[in-house]
User: Which sequence fits this backbone?
């Protein structure tokens, strides 16, 4: 489920109400598994509000530590509960600081009234290098993604179905090229949730801001044989009407290329049937 679909900064105006103005946060649920969350943007508060009270453990894969990906953490309702465990995986920094040190440095006075340690739940932060590991029955694969600062893309596989999350992705100067590790991560994924910050027009003069054009996200999805591309991390200036037009255009192009294209909006749920479900 999509709880926050914007990049850079939360936004609010009549023009962005339908797709929503919260920053990056997506949750993944599977039977018998603790919820898995991608990123801690301001959408995280809404993820926490809809969570069943019986859930006492939340696992989070953080792409990187830019504000729009961590700002929701202090507002997760479950953080107030002594009986909750919040397990976070995030990239360490090139200068040796751990992800935990960086989060502690952002959530403390004078920027925030309470430190992360002083809030009720148990918070564990694990540094991640590109690697594979398991979280419950989810298989997780992390690779480096070109952006600004250490950034990871994640592929989560459950019962042979794979979802890839690449929120922020620097387009190379030659747009016909794809980072080999990123391309491999996306290979034949059922769903690719990908940076869609810029239109071709917006991109001019912003070629080194760490993001890509929607067209590049689409080309990557086609090249990798992805089934469904979810355009995500919308620029805060992108209006609902513009997003409607983008979805219309790329659905047509996707139909020709064999990729279903969807524009992420808050509250949207995607059901990815497992093979057992398909044949039931
Ligand atoms: Zn971002
Ligand atoms: Zn970023």
Assistant:
């Amino acid at each position: 489920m999509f709880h926050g679909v914007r990049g850079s900064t939360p936004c609010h105006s009549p023009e962005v109400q339908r797709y929503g103005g919260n920053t990056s946060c997506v949750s993944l649920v599977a039977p018998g598994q603790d919820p898995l969350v991608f990123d801690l943007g301001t959408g995280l508060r809404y993820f926490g509000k809809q969570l069943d009270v019986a859930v006492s453990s939340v696992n989070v894969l953080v792409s990187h530590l830019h504000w729009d990906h961590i700002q929701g953490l202090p507002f997760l309702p479950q953080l107030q509960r002594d009986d909750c465990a919040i397990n976070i995986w995030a990239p360490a920094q090139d200068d040796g600081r751990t992800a935990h040190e960086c989060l502690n440095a952002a959530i403390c006075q004078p920027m925030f009234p309470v430190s992360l340690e002083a809030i009720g739940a148990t918070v564990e932060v694990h540094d991640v290098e590109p690697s594979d590991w398991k979280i419950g029955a989810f298989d997780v694969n992390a690779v480096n993604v070109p952006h600004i600062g250490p950034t990871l893309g994640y592929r989560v596989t459950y019962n042979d179905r794979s979802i890839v999350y690449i929120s922020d992705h620097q387009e190379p100067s030659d747009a016909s090229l794809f980072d080999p590790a990123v391309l491999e991560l996306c290979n034949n994924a059922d769903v690719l949730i990908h940076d869609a910050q810029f239109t071709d027009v917006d991109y001019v003069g912003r070629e080194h801001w760490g993001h890509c054009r929607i067209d590049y996200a689409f080309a990557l999805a086609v090249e990798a044989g992805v089934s469904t591309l979810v355009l995500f991390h919308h620029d805060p200036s992108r209006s609902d009407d513009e997003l409607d037009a983008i979805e219309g255009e790329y659905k047509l192009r996707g139909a020709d290329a064999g990729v279903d294209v969807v524009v992420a909006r808050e509250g949207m749920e995607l059901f990815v049937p497992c093979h057992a479900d398909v044949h039931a």
